[in-house]
Amino acid sequence: MNLIKSNWKSITLLLIVGCYIVFVFIMDKRTDLFTPAILIYFIITTILFLNSVVGAPGIIIHSVFKKEGPAIPFYKAAIRLGSTNTNILAAYGLILLRDNQPTDAKKLFKTAIENSRHYMYNKTLTANIALCEWKEGNVPKATKTYEDLYYYPDLEELTSFSEGNLQEGIDKNHNFYAQDFTTMAFLMHLNNEKEKAIYFSLVSLEKSGKYGPAFDNLGQIHYQDGDIIKAKEFFQKALEYNPTMSDSLYYLAKIALDEENNELSKKYLNQIDLDRINGLSTITKETVNNLING
Can you give the pTM of this predicted structure? Predict the structure, then answer.
């Protein structure tokens, strides 16, 4: 069955050619038989790819109408039926990751990679696996997964992680975007690799000078170092480009509270939309609520 499914495109082409020869030449232009033949073909296709057919409405609802909730039942049904459709697996995996279910999400991402031959798609899936590893508490592994992805397949390490060498960081992998550099930098920050964390955050800003999360990265790095003045500058810069960024708002509220400026702290906290905080955030709803109630 898997052999038939994996070669269905070729089989379809043969069926088209075969039907044309039989109906037009052998059966003397019996074009009236094309309609039932097409119907039979679609029935067979639906049976063979039932799991993907069941999941297809979810993809449409999710991607076209931007409705995540109504798409979930279709994804679940498709996966229960054994779907290996990479779009379905990746989409539902991301939903699970945002819902703080990294282990289940990682299984779906790995299955999707096993069934995908496209480098850019696999790059995104591998990056998502790294995020799952982070959320599972394995920061060193997550960092290595992302760094290996950056140096894929066998690129040499950068000659320097200095601010004057940002262009080399960009040129090393043109398939990495500002978001990729920022995520890798944040993982390096968590892994206590300060030099690399700062470097790749700056590379991200070299790619996209208005990317708020990269400024937030730098804010968190300096906050951990105790350089509150620089931390505030970077958090405020992050909000300049992304006014709803919960992570920067949280840290600015925390800093204001530490400085005994309760009104300013409350102002920042009131701007945080808890519904925007999910499994991909660097903070949790719990940490925000603890600051509010503390």
Answer: 0.88
